[in-house]
């Protein structure tokens, strides 16, 4: 019987975090801001360009962002029921 080395390969997948840029629409909550992201799309049948708006609840640790500020944010672990994003920079 021969001794065979078994290789255990650990397949570590790189974490792909989505990144968005948007405008703060609300900063009334503690350590949370609501950011609106606009995206331009083209209708598949009519080829008309239209915009869609999506609002995200983003974690703001220092409460430093106010309404109207432009912020960049990335995906992170869930912090609450709706909050899965954190601010990277303004």
What is the secondary structure topology, with strand pairs?
Blueprint (H helix, E strand, L loop, with lengths): L18 E8 L5 E11 L6 E11 L10 E6 L9 E5 L1
Subunit structure: Part of the 30S ribosomal subunit.
GO cellular component, one term: cytosolic small ribosomal subunit
Protein name: Small ribosomal subunit protein uS17
Could you write a compact summary of the structure shown?
0% of the residues lie in helices and 46% in strands. The chain is built from no helices and five strands.
So, the CATH homologous superfamily of the domain at 29-89? Nucleic acid-binding proteins
**How many β-strand runs?**
5
Class derived from helix and strand content: mainly beta
User: At CATH's second level, what is the architecture of the domain at 29-89?
Assistant: Beta Barrel
Number of helices: 0
From the 3D structure, determine the CATH topology of the domain at 29-89. Answer: OB fold (Dihydrolipoamide Acetyltransferase, E2P)
Our Rg estimate from Cα atoms comes to 20 Å
The span between the termini is 64 Å
CATH first level of the domain at 29-89: Mainly Beta
**How is the biggest beta sheet arranged?**
5 strands, mixed, barrel
Helix coverage percent: under 10%
Low-pLDDT residue spans: none
């Amino acid at each position: 019987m021969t001794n065979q080395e078994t290789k255990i390969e650990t397949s570590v997948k790189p974490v792909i975090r989505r990144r968005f840029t948007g405008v703060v629409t609300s900063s009334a909550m503690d350590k949370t801001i609501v950011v609106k992201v606009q995206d331009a799309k083209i209708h598949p049948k009519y080829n008309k360009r239209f915009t869609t708006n999506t609002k995200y609840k983003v974690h703001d640790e220092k409460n430093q962002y106010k309404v109207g500020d432009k912020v960049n944010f990335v995906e992170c672990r869930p912090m609450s029921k709706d909050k899965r994003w954190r601010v990277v920079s303004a």
